[in-house]
Write a structure and sequence with these properties.
The chain is built from 4 helices and 9 strands. The protein is α+β, with helices and mostly antiparallel strands and 194 residues long. A 9-stranded mixed β-sheet has the order 1-2-9-8-5-6-7-3-4.
Length: 194
């Protein structure tokens, strides 16, 4: 009986691991990204992946209930920033990302905030309360973002190339206003938004 239980536990673990890998599409290597761009100190936590990963198209909703997907930003370098109302470091990143959006308004980059809050009704009041009334976000209350990328750390920012392939990420807070971030982003745009 003990052998049967051990085998069953091992089988269940293997199945769960295979589901996790499939859910994140991280095994779907599409192309070698080449030599990584040298990182400034502020970008130490950013990982430029050795291979771009293809991801499935997943629908999100905005605050008005309209459906969106990352596909609408193809042709651009896309930064997907996961955040939540209960995330203290997110409060620091939101105004920084707002400034970055303004700074890059005419460049080949899209910055897409996605709230992973389960209670979507809490998102807009939270943003308004903290002075972010102009901040527009997509919502992923059912965690469908997990089909593309892990959503177990916030804030986290995932970077997609012009074809919607995952090419990099930073999990945790990043000071987006640091003077060395913009030149690095410009290099990422030049490399991946073609």
């Amino acid at each position: 009986m003990k052998s049967y239980t051990s085998k069953l536990a091992l089988l269940c673990t293997a199945w769960l691991l295979s589901c996790a890998v499939q859910a994140h599409s991280l095994q779907n290597k599409l192309y070698d990204t080449g030599e990584p761009i040298p990182k400034p100190r502020v970008m130490t936590g950013f990982i430029e992946m050795q291979h771009a990963r293809g991801v499935p198209e997943v629908p999100f909703i905005d605050e008005a209930g309209q459906t969106h997907s990352l596909k609408q930003h193809q042709g651009k370098l896309t930064l997907v920033n996961l955040w939540a109302t209960w995330c203290v470091p997110c409060l620091r990143e939101i105004p920084e990302l707002q400034k970055l959006q303004q700074q890059y308004i005419d460049k080949n980059i899209a910055i897409v905030p996605i709230s992973i809050d389960e209670e979507v009704k809490d998102v807009r009041p939270f943003l308004d309360q903290h002075g972010f009334s102009n901040y527009r976000t997509w919502l992923a209350p059912d965690k469908n973002i997990e089909q593309i990328i892990p959503a177990n750390v916030v804030p986290a920012t995932y970077v997609f190339d012009a074809k919607g392939n995952l090419v990099g990420f930073v999990r945790g807070y990043l000071d987006w206003t640091d003077k060395e971030v913009a030149p690095y982003l410009d290099k990422l745009i030049a490399k991946y938004a073609q």
